[in-house]
Amino acid sequence: MQLSNFLELEQADTLENVERVQNAVATEQSYLDYIVQDWACWDDTYQFIEDKNQQYINVDLQNQTLAGINVNVMIFVNNSGEVVYVKSVNTSTTKEEPVPDELFSMIEDGSLLTKGENDSISGFVLLDKDPMFIACHPILTTKYDGPSRGTLIFGRYFDDDLLDSFRKVTRSSLIMYRTDEEMPTDFQMKIKNVSENPDKIVVEPLNDNQIAGYFGFKDIKGQLALLIRADFPRELYIHGEKTLNYMYFFLLLTGLMTGVGVKFALDNLFISRLIEIDDFVTRVRSEKDLSKRLSLEDNDELYRLSREINGMLNEIYLAEQEVKAQAREKKVLLDSLNELAVFVGPELRIIWANKAALEYMKMDLEKAMGIYLKDAPGINGPLVEYLHLEHIFTTGEKISGEYIAKDGKVWFVQAIPVPDEKGKIIGILQTCWDITERKEAEKLLHEKQIAEVANRTKSEFLANMSHELRTPLNSIIGFSDLLSEKVYGELNEKQTRAVGNISRSGKHLLNLINDILDLSKVEAGKLELDYKEFELASKLNTIKNLLAPIAGRKNIEIEIDVDKDLTTIRADEARFVQIMYNLVDNAIKFSHENGLVNVKAEKKGDLVEIMVKDKGIGIKLEDQHKLFKPFSQVDPFSSKKFQGTGLGLSLVKQIVNLHGGYVWFNSKIGEGSTFAFTIPINGDKGKGRNGKTKLFDDTEMAENTKL
Q1: Are residues 476 and 499 in the same domain?
Q2: pTM score, two decimals?
Q3: In a domain, 691, yes or no
Q4: Do the domain assignments include residue 254?
């Protein structure tokens, strides 16, 4: 009975060791599946299948790239089954090698081609050279959107070097045979059992010193492709057998000496209790229930052994409770953080995530555990695109920085490697903190500081320079007018022209200073309107008479057309004159010789709409955005010919807005321009609306019959 227990323990231990080997091979296949998915679901790959651009090949399909990701063969196939690009390299030397012809045959018969966006192929293929891991995935966009443009095929040779690496990792003696080749006798005897159930592990002793576990792997068609034997020493069984032999030899010797009675006593007092202890330990181990206790009577060695076992279980239980308490404390602490915290393992699958991360992903922990980080909704951008996690597993270096997502959010992301007691990195703790509001606040604060400095500078300039210039200009204008009127005596013709030029230049500068002061008052909210009622037609004719000399020099005619329903309006008369003077003056300035400027006023409900239209040079589409901006002229070269400060239209917009109206315009190069505005007919002080400037392009203007 005891020997059978040791055989069962040996069987269980061998199964556990063989499963470790299976997991190592499965991990290699999972890695290849993950890599091919990562490459296939990439916008650059999606585009490459379409246009076969050389840049993708030069940048991403180098020999060193394939060697770096441990891929021997890479094949791009489009939806028509045509091979777009293929590369095969030796991962040890990075030199190119021929692609096995068998792979092209399987592409032609469709064995390696995916059938849809959710289809994938994974397994082995038996090539003449060596068996090969195969992973095939449909080619989609980075967001896993279709339609699929073909299939990306990755292959990794299951050669002697890879088999040696599995031997080292699992510390096992491994022998592999292909099912399409002749096998040793022991393999032939096991192939039937494994073929019927490829997931089954067959464990049998090879000899007195070794025990073996046989298991297989299927090809991409589900048929048994490889049969592997893992050999292990029978240390557990041999040690148990020796122990039992010694014990039974002792019992036999004692029986011979003391007879059947002593043997019976030993069986009851020693063996049965020893079995009870063994069964108890086995049960605790299998059930993992540390609350159980062993109870044996009598004050002997076995009793003291059971007491020590119970004490050990108490200590383990207390330690486990302490670890659980610490884990709960850490969980509460991490869940209280606003940052997103995610812990991933070497395969980049989520092991744990805090409350903030789970809420952001909109899933619970049970659903999140085990999914690839790249598939995690919401957080895959900052954690996958910015942080190169594979590099961290290699170097052990912490990575942090700021990342701007596609939706404009700014994240502070950090990846910290987590080592075990031996220093091996077992996972990465990643945190992600949304700092968008902080960045926007910093930007706004910086812009506010710049604006305040600029505003103070402008205000100081206007306060100092305008008054400094106004006083001497008034004197210059006054005295030049007195000289022009010959108050101080007669002037010859040349002197009269000079005095006239002085007066006109001074008045021009004074108007410029007044415009600057007006604009400054508007921007500061200190310009007040003096509403009064006046005749609209009379005021428009006054503007016409004021500008008639300027129009006459270019033989330009000014037409006034006022709606018969419009008689008087209520507005700031002086500011209205200022608006119309600027608009009509601009129309004259940019009109051709012998041109026509039309001023039209119409009633639109409780508003008056006034348009000033010319057939002059027009304004280029790319220059139209400069209109209504202070000190901005649409064409610096034109400004040499057509003098101006660039303040007129800006003041027009601001004054119309203060009246509760709005301004718009339409212009085509070479065909002229139309500037228009509306204000309330019966405006009143303090009851204006917030105005706005509306810009129409040529298409909009064609649809707007009003203009």
Answers
A1: yes
A2: 0.37
A3: yes
A4: no
